Protein 1
Amino acid sequence: MLLDLSKLFGRSKNSKDLAKERLKLVLIHDRANVSPQFLEMVKGEIIKVISNYMDVDEDSLDIQMTRTRSEEGDRIVPALVANIPIKSVKNSGK
Amino acid sequence: MSEVIVITSGKGGVGKTTTTANIGTGLALQGKKVVLIDTDIGLRNLDVVMGLENRIVYDLVDVIEGNCRLKQALIKDKRFEGLHLVPAAQTRDKSAVNPEGMISLCEELRKEFDYILVDCPAGIEQGFKNAIAGADRAIVVTTPEVSAVRDADRIIGLLEANDLRDQRLLINRVRPDMVKRGDMMSIDDIIDILAIDLIGVVPDDEKIIISTNKGEPAVTDNKSLAGEAYRGIARRIMGEDVPILNLQEEDGLMFKIKRFFGIKVN
């Protein structure tokens, strides 16, 4: 009864959601284990190129190794996912 | 055309050996010629799960080292036409086998058998490398637990790094009641995280322990839900289009009958 009440007030979370959340976080680290230096190098080069055209938020730039379904959707391929927040686009780039 | 399939998981105790025994027996029941190879040297178990422990004379290491002919190490399962076992050595360690030895053994077995199932040891060291060396396909076994899913993810990455890209996921020991109340990750949750195709789902079934006690794979038990799941998986491996077992059927009539009689629904 207590459990149901707390659910009703939206306070408790299913333990499976907790499991999923924790797994996703730990896998980001596991998968990025290509070697942190390698990812840092890639990150540095990407920033260098993009900076020629736009101002990016280097601090919140996020780059990860993950997996995704291929274009044809028939197999799983490794993917490099980069989230690069843009502050502004430079005039020379327009 | 024959296929070498490795059954692997990373984590120990998720049911690799039980899976190998049941899928292998399931394939034999479908009329296929099947051989099971136990590569867990030093910790052999496939023989007891299959109930063939009293028939071992030669083992995998004897074959690889040339102490006997391959035929002499093949234990024929008299209960199921076409089913054979190559047991692991118990008094040696993983270094007694190398990937080259496994590749040539698999090539040799391809001439005789439709399916060669390789039961992989836990871990990612030598034993794992040996087990995957000759394989065309992999079945990654996991359970709906954080630790098992994490290790499965690592194994998927390692298989890919070794160019073994034909991988399918088997989710073992699913408890529909726990999934329903949100205390166990669902099939979709796990597929979402691992991004790999499913070969099947096996419910947590006490019949598995009973059948292991007897040395008779549950796949032969028509009353066992896990057995039914394994029969479907065997047919899916053969390329048949069999729907994944719907575990939510527990909600149906059986569930109500069990509850009506006050039987604990696990």
Protein 2
Amino acid sequence: MNDLSAILTPEYIAVILLPALIAGVAVSLCSSLLGVSLVLKRCSMIGDGLSHVGYGTLCVAVAMGWAPMQVAVPVVIAAAYILLRLSENSRLGGDTAIALFSTSALAIGILASSKANLTTDVSHYMFGSILAMTRGDVIFSVILSICVVLVYLLFYDKIFAVTFDENFARATGMNVRFYNLLIAVLTAVTVVLGMMMMGALLISSLMIFPAVTAMRLCKRFRGVVIAAVIVSVTCFLCGLFLSLLLDTAVGASVVIMDLAAYLIAVIIGKLKKASQNR
Amino acid sequence: MAYITCDKITLRYEALTVLENLSFTVSQGDYLCIVGENGSGKSTLMKCLLGLKPVDGGKLTYGDGLKRNEIGYLPQQSQIQRSFPASVREVVLSGCLNGKGLHPFYTKAEKERAAEQMRCLNITELADRSYRELSGGQQQRVLLARALCATKKLLLLDEPLTGLDPLVATELYSILQHIHDAHGITVIMVTHDVECAVRHAQSILHVGKKESFFGSCAAYEKTPLGKRFLGDAVEPEHCENCVHEHAEVQHE
């Protein structure tokens, strides 16, 4: 176990920990908001698929010497649009189309990075390295997170409607395709931001865990959304603390906290049910 | 001009042609039941009327000032996720969204409209309950309230009685009758229950591959097709769903 008082010098807190904390909270917030819709729409795999595409893009960007995040955001947004259309129209079925598309993108990224011998640099994006984010990355993440949250709040009622009953929304004349696209774009942005801290392998858990935990605890959509945000941010903070204390990877520590929160929620749910039946 | 005009439409379900050369109209104030055997294309027709699927031939037009976002729809229960966390109020309010365009948040008038529909369907006390914890009949009322928030003109219902016990089904018929008579809303309902359809609707559209019928209920009962489907069960006591219990409806 680390001696925290030795690590947490004022300089370390100001330069590394605080920016990581701010970016992490912002991204946890976004991912939990979108996670609720993804889980309820039964398309949790889109988050995973997009993280593969994002990783591939980051590899190519690093190999070419481009700014990784700034390249990845537009590419992953485009991928989100394509994945959505594929899962709507494809004969293969949505999940197969997502798997084909995302693993191909991943393969291209790995090819590019192995050609350029970049294995160490890009492994950051595989497992996440929130403490290694540059000042520019942090500012970029926070601005985009604020945009995601604002757009989500403005369209909250419509996002609820297309999540609850897409056919009704379409039949009564709502532009369902637009709102699905909006959800996909917000997801894409969140995935790229989340890759910085969680890594491509773990980002989809950051979206899904808080949502399923909240669904165990709450019965109303608004309640679920609020609970998911609280769970997500709390688990992130606990995970970050745990990683400092035990010197473990931040992303994995956050996921373990999410898992713990989920298990606690399951137990609370069971106890509630038991007391009701008595 | 009618709300909906279908001129010689053809419908396919995947590669299979289910309906051909079908023509009918629905005008303001109609109460039309669409009946037919399983697999006769009733639900496919419903999807076309709702614009969820294009027609595969012929022409389907909206008229008489009816716009795409002025239609209310009650889907089959099975299409809704049963485990979805949502309160009754959230579900009913979402019916108000179709007239809003990009405008965010519900206005006071929309909240009032939702509250009024909940009062009308007697579900005000359920407003803060979770939709997934309600009984089948209560869920159906919630979805009906949502549909009524979405329209003042035309209500489409897809097999609304499936899975409901007879008493609840009777109640729903009475509510529909009230919505049609008192609120002047045009009703189109897909159902497999021919006897109740004849009893409550003004006109019948019987769809089938070999023979179709479109006309008034009285005319339908006289056709060989109608006689065959109604069998001997035209007598009221044979139809458990149709005991008129209008007393249960709350008239304003």
Protein 3
Amino acid sequence: MTELLLFNVTNGLIIGAFYVLMALGLSLILNLSGVINFAHGGFLALGGYIAFTMQPFIGFWGALLLAPVLVAVLGLLLERTMIRRLYGRDPLYSLLLTFGLAFILQDFTRYVWGANGLPFTVPAFLAAPISDQLFFVTWYRLFMVAVVAIAVGGLFLFLRYTRTGVRIRAGTLDLETVSVLGVNVGGLRAYNFALGIFLAGLAGVLASGQLSLVPNMGDSLLMPSFVAIIVGGVGSLPGTLLGGLLIGLASGLVTLFWPSAADAVIYVIMAIVLLLRPRGLLGEEGMLG
Amino acid sequence: MSALVAEGLNTFYGKSHILHDVGLTVAEGRITTLLGRNGAGKTTTLRSLVGLTPPRTGRVTIFGQDTTRFAPFAVAALGVGYVPEGRRIFPNLTVEENLRVPLERPGNWSVARVYEVFPRLAERRQNRGRQLSGGEQEMLAIARALLLNPRLLILDEPSQGLAPLIVRDVFRIVAGMRTEGMSVLLVEQNVRMSLEIADDAYVLENGAVVYAGTAAQLTGDEARIRALAGATAEDWAFDERAA
């Protein structure tokens, strides 16, 4: 029983870590550009596939570093050519555009790599179980959580201590004032968009080592990531972090007792939070508040 | 050369025509004040000058460059500091972080000098914008604009909502900018105090310029000032206390 509980808790933490990476990227883009990026899951899958293709040439570690960068560059191109034209308009326009991009990205991966699942191999020492007692926890699971923790920690340090990070936080509340202070907010938004897509790409590479690669692998992560943002409070990145971990753990634990409710529980949590605290858990504080 | 010349500005919000052929000049090294009652179009004029609400027709020239179609950041990069109405401090950022947002053009103003001139900001550097008093927020908004090392400083109602003593401080600081060699465009409701420190004055009414001349000349026109302030000098002093 203890083992089963532990297994589900680690599962919940890992799925929560993926929600966090996805949701932080979505949150960054939503906060600064007002765009709900439905294509985020497509970027995630693309990150996994690019890593898969690059791995024979540059190895696991090279692919882990380089694939998210390439996905971010693609994100930057799409932002500069299409998405930025819809800033400041009715949010419905950007929603339709990213919804369309989601289909295009998914069919593109299906066209290039095929619809069947592909195996992504991780280094042997990471694939091994931690110990005989904890045979169900591989080193790779710990590794994923560690990489997510480093990425999230790095993001928060970046936003707190660099000038660009401070400007992104300022722009979340008042982009107009940031612009009259001499900051090119178009560039700031592009940079921020690429940063969000980088996180999606990283999540994609990490997920490929655990699940098999399929073109729609991002779909199952996208809705819970939106839920994580709402539960944590729109506009608050610490809230997004908390929300992602919370719903991940909750669905992991519920799997143990009532497996068929595992997907529903996150929506129940969202409903309760919205009833009791419509702003979300940390929604009242500003970013990094 | 003039710091700023605006000619024939016609600015719209949607379909409503707000500014009608507004023209004004800010001479270099002088303080120009733009007066007018609520809703006369003062803020819209400033927004048209800095690129936030570009005019439909007309031309804005800043330090000899046609900036009519410039984005706000490009106008700022020419050395235009803007202190917006309501101060617009970033409430979620600390004082220190607020001061990291502006583009830092080279010049005399640095964060260290800002803390020297505004010691109160140095004391509160770890406090968030939302925790500051109105006066402290105004100081921060001015300090933030100064870090750009502007050649032209544009202020939109810096005295709004401040206690009379603080208002004096703010006006003293603005007057001091002239000795720094800065040109200043000051929008104000506080007619008498603005005219005290200004060299040139404009009056807006219903989106059109109805007076252009020296501040001294306008100060002598008691009837016009009474109409602008909406009361006699004594009543005005009382209004100020009530605010």
Protein 4
Amino acid sequence: MSVFANCSRRGFCLGMLSAVLAPLLHMRSALALPDKLTPLIREATGGAEPKAGRVKLTLPPLAESGNSVVCKVHVESPMAPEDHVTSIHLLSEKNPRPVIARFYLGPRSGRAEINTRIRLAASQQVVALAVMKDGSCWTDTATVIVTAAACGVESKEG
Amino acid sequence: MANTRIQIPAVLQRGEVFEVRLLIRHSMETGGRHDDTGRPIPRNVVNQLLCRYNGVEIFRADLFPGIAANPYLTFFTTAEASGDLEVSWRDDAGTEESERVPVVVKE
């Protein structure tokens, strides 16, 4: 008797589907930060371990051109003198210069939200880090598929 | 040369959190491109930006070539008193520019 005897076609299809989807779902898990960025993340956070949550990084899942990609970072914070976001860092996994921008905020900001447009050299993961007044650090990532990479971002000097 | 545009709501209430929208006309040369003769075009991006509200720093940014040409940037601040909002920036070529808009806060 074959080992597949009690394996229905439906079961097989579901199994194959989950095998394909599992790595995709894993990619979505927020704390899979690119290893390459570890020293930069440490530099930005002053050693604090970034935790998932509080930060919401919004990027289109698919960008036709990497020259200008709409990017929004929102951090949940009361922005009070005793509890506010002090800095927001945008890092890229595959751009020749991994730091995209650093923003410094304070209690007078009222609301921790930044909108900008960024360049992306390839399909990649973008990381947003928010450092709080108490030194804690929160993060979110977004994966963008770029159809045409940003021209001129691929610098040889890195 | 006015390369910086700042947009804020015309009239604000005291304590209101409002959005500041900036648009700077700047090529943001990445330093990775070459001209027609093959010579590299030197990097020239707006690298530092500072926003002051009645002389007090409320927002600062370090920008890199990862920011798209003609940088667009928005952030928030709280309306405290009438006065002005000043944005100044500096690029790699040493150009410095500053632009201000009046802030009107209704009592």
